[in-house]
Amino acid sequence: MIRRLILSSLFVTAWLALALWGLRTAPRPADAWQLTASPVPSPTAFVEPEGCWEPPDDYTLLWVNGGLFNARTVAMLDRAQALYAAQGGTLDLRLAITQGSYAGGALAASFGTHDGGGAVDLSVRSPVDWSVQTDEIEPMLRALRVAGFAAWLRAEDELYPGSVIHIHAIAIGDAELSEAARAQIDGTFGYLRGYDGLPQINGVPIPDRYGGPVICRWMIARGFQDTRGWPNPLPTPGGTAQAVTALP
User: Helix 134-146 and helix 71-86: axis angle, to 10°?
Assistant: First the structure.
């Protein structure tokens, strides 16, 4: 009896060993028992917005509606006017000018952004009754951005107590920008990084409430591209990342 039990036990042990050996040596798909990696998000393919146009490198000085500009900035403003009007815009951007370029330090409230070329401020009020044209603001900003400006709305009291509502725009790629203006394009608080261009004492940039930057092929060719999510500060060629302590 004992002998039969021992033989049965040995038979069961041998059968289990053969079964396990078969599992180890049986062929299996190449990807079996392997972890599947989560998909990695990829950048959105670049699509040039309709209306992109490379401005001329003309720095002849011109007076327009009381403001001093280079011809490149004026050409960009006129391009924005055409784009804006094509979408039903009703304001005249040349007549809306409230501040020009080449201020040479005379405009302290602008912390140097208007000291060189490429800067312009535009009213968003009706020339008839002085009411804020709320419905015109986003179309104006879009047209200015496609024309090559970094452009934002500055709300009432946003810059300092009593500051008026207006659009502030800086021409991307202008060779005569002041350092402060260039910082608004690709510096720590800049447009190409997805921010509103205003330096903050606490060092925390404020997101652009009108969306990300508009990028055209001519901008990329000149070293300007969408740098949202890039290490900060990491300016594009020739850019600036001005220290917060150096700004008001």
Answer: 130
**Residue 241: other Cβ atoms inside 10 A:** 16
Q: From the centroid of its chain, how far is CA 157?
A: 24
Q: What is the pLDDT of residues 105-159, one digit of tens each?
A: 665 566 789 999 999 999 999 999 999 999 999 999 999 999 999 999 999 999 9
pLDDT of residue 239: 47
Question: What is residue 164's DSSP assignment?
Answer: P
Domain boundaries, given as residue ranges, for the chain: 61-246
* 172: alpha, beta or left? (left if phi > 0; alpha if psi -120 to 50): beta
Quick check: 149 and 76 in contact, CB under 8 A?
yes
- What residue type is assigned to position 18 of the chain? L
Q: Which residue has the tokens 């500051």?
A: 163
Both tokens of 111, joined, read: 């912390």
117 close to 172: Cβ distance less than 8 angstroms: no
Query: Which token pair is 138?
Result: 């986003």
Omega prior to 139 cis, within 30 of 0 = no
> What are the b/e assignments for 84-97, b being 16+ CB within 10 Å?
beeeebebebeebb
| Token representation of residue 47 | 């699509």
Token pair listed for 14 = 């041998």
What's the CA gap between 122 and 103, in Å, rounded? 16
Q: Which residue, 173, 174, 162, 199, is CA-closest to 184?
A: 199
3-state SS class at 154: strand
Cα 63 from chain centroid (whole Å):
30
Q: 46: which 2 tokens?
A: 């670049």
Predicted TM-score (pTM) of the model is: 0.76
Spatial contact of 170 and 105, defined as CB atoms under 8 Å apart: no
